[in-house]
Amino acid sequence: MSQHLSRRAVLTRTGLALAGSLYRLKGAACEGGVDISTPLKVHASRKGLLFGSAASQRYLKSDPAYAALFAQQCGVLVPEGELKWNVLRPTPDSYNFGPADWMYEFTRTHNLKFRGHTLAWWQALPGWFSSYANQGNARRLLEEHIATVVGRYSGKMHSWDVVNEVVDPYDKRADGLKTKPWLELAGPEYIDFSFQSARAADPNALLVWNENHLEINDTWSRGKRKALLSLLAEKLKRKIPIDAVGLQTHVSTTDPSFDNKEFKTFVRKIADLGLRIIISEIDVIDHDAPANTSIRDEKVAGTYSNYLDLILKEKQVIAVLTWGLSDKYSWLAKFKPREDGLPVRTLPFDDCLAGKKAFTAIANAFDWAPDRSPMG
Fold it and tell me: Rounded to whole angstroms, how far apart are CA atoms 241 and 193?
């Protein structure tokens, strides 16, 4: 034990020393960086909030400057892919915990909370799934997976995204659920037994229903909000152990239509159900924003400000998690690239790991948020 603690202390000191030197180097190379000396996690914690981000083992392991920045700025680490089925389950009968275990050790070294993403999702399934899973074995397969994975990290997780992106009113089901593999193979009750299995495997982690496209003022989002509220109320009435709702919040600079009465009412209704709220994957899509860097950064920062100023008024919001910390590793570079070929600028830090106006917008939103009791 003493050897482990000594090694951990050395790693921590090394990381902090590296942070200082590398940030100075990066700051010298990149003009226009904002003051990041007070980390976002500190701005958040002053109001009883958590700040964190998603990251992958690949980049934390290969980029020491990025790893140091992450440890400095974040209080929560969300593995981007290391806890998804296609990474964890190379075969029906085996598990690959190596990458996720590495991420957990990173959180231990740097005193971060660890968050699980995700247990039941219709995407990121392994290649063997479609020929192996069927109506006869799907429930057992999912329950065993949850018992094994959640059980391995029991007592170590802040929260789990138990189900992810499961509502789609355009699929025309009366309950509003998305018609995808888990529903087709295990029935709509898969949501119930996923939460029940997760609670049995870890009595203390927050169990989250994570959902996308809930904030925009359009027909689809309106239908999703209505269906989700109905589903949550029904399941809570039957004592299904749901603790929180995750709002993904991949918003655009060109459609900041979340500042509307319907969305505010929806957020209030989630809170009225006694559920906590996690802003689980926020970033700002800039593919339609002007090419000019200064103008684009203002628009991105303004979108963060508008959303966070609105959502943080609700005291049941306990955490804000960006989906990536630096534009250098943003998923939007691949999935929502700019037509002009310019790098995306969607996150608090740029490609050089320098702080941007988005950093200041997020920090200010935390500073201006109402006080709340520390949670989570």
Answer: 10
